[in-house]
Design a protein that fits this description.
The protein is mainly beta and 405 residues long. It has two domains: 270 residues, Beta Barrel (Thrombin, subunit H); 100 residues, PDZ domain (Pdz3 Domain, Roll). The chain is built from six helices and 25 strands. Strands 1, 2, 11, 12, 13, 14, 15, 16 and 17 form a nine-stranded mixed β-sheet that branches. Strands 5-6-7-10-9-8 form a six-stranded antiparallel barrel. Strands 19, 20, 21, 22, 23 and 24 form a six-stranded antiparallel β-sheet that branches. A hairpin with a 5-residue loop joins strand 8 and strand 9.
Length: 405
């Protein structure tokens, strides 16, 4: 069956270079990931009614009072109890909406006939400091030649500067000159449970500012390959939250929020329309908190660098190759793109092609928790203990991480 297409939730896209290469000496079957489209999305609320009888057992089961009214009741008479939508979603919208922004993109290019063509796009973001730092997706602000404008909740507009783009994740920070802005509260995405209700807010379709929708966490630890709706390149994203909350074009970069009013994710991509409904994806907040702290402190994102190329060791690959282990990251490459980068921390530690990295500081490397994702938890200068399997023999090496440049 053909994999569904996944698209970004806006009209801008950013392509990141693949860091994995297939080895020539080993057999590596093709691994299919969900292909996704990144879009900008919006969410909508739902209300319901419950019909309850005066039967005390039924009323008690439904959570209503079983005390009898002083007014006479006819035998067998039923009463419709209208239960209003939970105030939790309303409270979340009131708390977070003032800190959600719309991001407008405008760029110019010369077409085949020498005419200047203007391209416009839109996305979302949320304010993390009162003086104007705003989090969004990298693909929303990927065009370095574009002009960006931020519209706040009260429709004030500000020219925006892209302060930092993450080299690893679909995350960026923009800056506007303002003060006294409403800010969001960041939550702990690791505490999310499948089935837990969440709310999304964003600039749906690039024109419906601060649209609110709600849904649940459908799954965690998803991996997708996502690209723009127009086609072209894609990038691999992992560790994502899956949600059935309505996501539409323009929602990219907007917050996914728990019922405490805490931002737990960044709405990023959806399955292409016509292929699936109610399948959206968000970057978990915990995966970028370290980067946010770096930008807040120094104005840039600094990534710790190991210097290897690898593929995830799956059961299928392990069954066809004699590594002596079934999970981990296999270091692979070719003459143009070696498995271990010359002069890198990995090279200094003696790592080689066909080594299988199984643990970092005791944390197991798996398909769901990749080597890159684990390394993103560490900072430049950190010393980590790496367990590798080389020719079926396990060994441990120490590596000092350096800055990715």
């Amino acid at each position: 069956m053909k994999d569904p297409k996944i698209i970004y939730t806006d009209e801008e896209s950013s392509v990141s270079e693949e860091i994995t290469q297939k080895p020539r000496s080993k057999t590596f079957p093709k691994i299919a990931f969900i292909a996704c489209t990144l879009l900008v999305g919006a969410l909508g609320g739902v209300a319901g009614t419950i019909v309850a009888t005066h039967n005390s057992a039924v009323r008690s089961a439904l959570g209503f009072s079983t005390s009898q009214s002083n007014e006479p009741q006819s035998a067998g008479k039923t009463e419709k109890i209208v239960v209003e939508e939970s105030s939790s979603v309303i409270d979340v919208a009131k708390k977070v909406s003032p800190a959600v922004v719309s991001i407008s993109t405008k760029s110019s290019a010369v077409d085949f006939f020498g005419q200047t063509v203007t391209h416009e796009g839109g996305g979302s973001g949320f304010i993390i400091t009162s003086d104007g730092l705003i989090v969004t997706n990298k693909h929303v602000v990927s065009d370095k030649n574009a002009m960006y404008t931020v519209f706040t909740y009260d429709w004030k507009s500000y020219p925006a500067e892209v302060l930092a783009r993450d080299s690893v994740s679909d995350f960026a920070v923009v800056k506007i000159k303002a003060s006294g802005l409403h800010v969001v509260e960041l939550g702990d995405s690791d505490q999310l449970q499948v089935g837990q209700r969440v709310v999304a807010i964003g600039n749906a379709l690039g024109q419906f500012q601060n649209t609110v929708t709600s849904g649940v966490i459908s799954a965690k630890e998803r991996q997708i390959d996502a690209g723009s709706a127009a086609g072209g390149g894609s990038e691999h994203l992992e560790g994502l939250l899956q949600t059935d909350t309505a996501i539409n074009e323009g929602n990219s970069g907007g917050p996914l929020i728990n019922l405490k009013g805490e931002v737990v994710g960044i709405n990023t991509a959806v399955a292409a329309k016509g292929q699936a409904e109610g399948i959206g994806f968000a970057l978990p907040m915990n995966s970028i908190k370290n980067s946010i702290a770096q930008v807040t402190k120094s104005g840039k994102i600094v990534r710790a660098y190991l210097g290897v190329r690898y593929i995830a060791l799956t059961k299928e690959i392990a069954d066809q190759n004699d590594y002596g282990v079934s999970t981990g990251a296999v270091l692979v490459g070719n003459p143009q793109n070696p498995a271990v980068v010359k002069g890198s921390p990995a090279a200094k530690a003696g790592l080689k092609a066909d080594d299988v990295i199984t643990k970092i500081n005791g944390e197991q490397v798996t398909e769901q928790k990749s080597l890159t994702r684990i390394l993103n938890q560490y900072n430049v200068g950190d010393v980590i203990e790496i367990v590798i399997v080389r020719e079926k023999k396990e060994m441990t090496v120490s590596v000092t991480l350096e800055e990715l440049k």
